[in-house]
Amino acid sequence: MAQLDGKVAIITGAAQGMGEVHAHRFVAEGARVVLTDLQEAAGEAVAKELGESALFVPHDVREEADWDRVIEATLERFGTLDVLINNAAIWSTASIESERVERLREILEVNVVGSWWGIRKAIAPMREAGGGSIVNISSIAGTRGIPEHGSYGASKWAVRGLAKVAASELGRYGIRVNSIHPGGVKDTGMFLIPEEEQARSFAGQPIPRPALREEISNVAIFLASDASSYITGREHVVDGGLTLW
After folding, report:
1. Which pLDDT belongs to residue 198?
2. Active site residues
3. Is the pTM of this model over 0.85?
4. End-to-end alpha carbon distance in the chain
5. By Cβ atoms counted within 10 A, which residue in 66, 81, 137, 157 is the most buried?
6. With contact defined as beta carbons under 8 Å apart, do 96 and 153 qualify?
């Protein structure tokens, strides 16, 4: 039996990168998946690859009306909602002194407000279903003060805290909320280290290489599955041991 047989999941930011791999892995584990993204052509292509178990809905995570459309489409197509993966995010680096406040606001709107709307809109259908699992994709930048990550780091600390508060409020309904904190992950828009420099860049961590996207998906699958039924409000760091010290 696959780990997610019978589950229905919404995965935001699923047209490319880590979200696309989450979608593929969830379907492989038996889930039916609603993929959302602003990139319509790419999102439609991923959903087509996945077949009848997938539906793509264009989606700006900052907008309440878009979330209402996503929830409505999910329930109309698949009848329920069991899992939400708040994956959509944007990233850039700048010192606090050089950062533009407009960019800070943009990052907070997508990364934090988008996740907040997702949690809020998932509550009613999950409560009606008797429970569910929400996973916020944060970052090790949400566990440490990393130079030039003031805006992004602030957003990922907020996503982490939001998961904890939601877990404390929603556990009574059988809704679990956790966060995942990846380190460097290959083949995403947030990983810019050339292949020839990776051995040197990751030599100092216990597992001396970057993560594969599938390795993050494995943790998301576990948290979405019934195997994690007594885990909520926790941070799950997937960084090859980078932040042990």
Report:
1. 80
2. 152
3. yes
4. 39
5. 137
6. no
